[in-house]
Amino acid sequence: MILTISLLLIVIWGKRQHTRSSSNEPAICRQIIAGVLRSTEKQQPNTLSPHQSKAIANRHLPIAFGIDNAFTRTDSVHASMFVEKVKPLINLSAEQWHSVSEFARVTTSHWIEHGFPGLDHSCGSSCHKEKQKPDCNRINVASLAQILSLKVVLWLMFDKKTQDQTCDENLLNLAQSINRVWISSKLKATENDIPRFEDDIPLQTSLVNIFGKHNHPEDNPLNLILPSFETMWRVMLRSFLEIRFGTGKEVPEWRETMIAFAKKPTKKQFDAGSRYPPSLSIPGPSMDDTRGGQSSPSANYIVRESLRLYAPTRHVHRAYQWNQGTGASHEMMSADIEGCHTMSDIWGSDADRFNPKRWFVFTPAQGDAFMPFGCPPFECPAKPTFGPRMVGVLVGSLLTAVGG
Ligand SMILES: *[C@@H]1O[C@H](CO)[C@@H](O)[C@H](O)[C@H]1NC(C)=O
Q1: Do 24 and 343 form a contact (C-beta atoms < 8 A)?
Q2: What phi and psi, each to the nearest 5 degrees, are found at residue 336?
Q3: Domain boundaries, the chain
Q4: Where is the signal peptide (predicted)?
Q5: pTM of the prediction?
Q6: In whole numbers, what is the pLDDT of the chain averaged over residues?
Q7: Ligand 1 centre from 396 Cα, in Å?
Q8: Are the C-beta atoms of 369 and 341 separated by less than 8 Å?
Q9: If you classify domain 2-246+298-401 with CATH, what class do you get?
Q10: Does 338 score more than 50 pLDDT?
Q11: How many CB atoms are located within 10 Å of the residue 274 CB?
Q12: Which residues contact ligand 1 via a Cβ below 6 A?
């Protein structure tokens, strides 16, 4: 009996802490993210400030990762200071774009040809002591996407050019620790369930191995790494798979467009639709083009379509408190970005299909619904240039390395 009651209490308590409503209506999502949605019944305003709404919804991040950045700050001054600090770091010059892309291509090709860090272990242990050459042609593409994104982030944001293989193993350890904690810290009902950074020796060790010790949360390298790496590698991986093995399998122009962009990562090249002389165009039924004439979608459109179908952040959560005086229970509201990106009444009956050509023509409603980098006032500073172009560079590099 007591057990039943306590179970019941746990359920109720869990619910109180955890009430969640979700919307895939773009206009509502924008309000949810901004922290200004009014309550359904009485149209009451949120008593939490927009930054509080955001920080409370992200409260697991400082606990699990020991960070202190724009995602975790309740005051707008510090949050915008962080964003201002990041802006120059991601404002790359033409030369920087060029060298980061070359770096990505060389690194990836090297891995594909000579094997990949971390693979040695799995080869070594699974092949026992036989002299047989381990099957190092097998590459874990997810690990590759992670470590490549991480390398690029380290290079650009921490001025760390990591070349050697031992470093790669550290990076892979860090990437895997981050992902482990990222997943295990999500959507916990109470703070006690959230894994704690102080207790996570593997995560701390992999950080120290690369950056040395830091003493304050505001100096934690993860402040910069989490928002860049954790979102980028997933989009990059999904985009690569889609272009190389999915829908794009039948459309070699997409690959070539991405490879050409990685080779020449300029704005002009990003927006260039690749055109083929008629003799080279692919005959057959593939991807009948009804919207864009004879031009093939630009790298920009291919990346945009990747960001639509594989949104970097699928749900954005915000804490709401509408009734003053009803205790400290928050309601969690979530903006279903993935839903906004795939609603068929906005995107058409092929909403679930990867079709970069849809971007030749798009409606205002689609513009409103497309929020891969969030929306004001919390728009990601990587939205205008850095994010899309970096995804393009990384995907293009990966395609180059596997030989198109
Ligand atoms: C990026 O840097 C250039 C100079 O390197 C500067 O002119 C430009 O205003 C910067 N852009 C942003 C958005 O900060």
Answers
A1: yes
A2: -85, 85
A3: 2-246+298-401
A4: 1-21
A5: 0.86
A6: 85
A7: 25
A8: yes
A9: mainly alpha
A10: yes
A11: 17
A12: 87, 91, 93
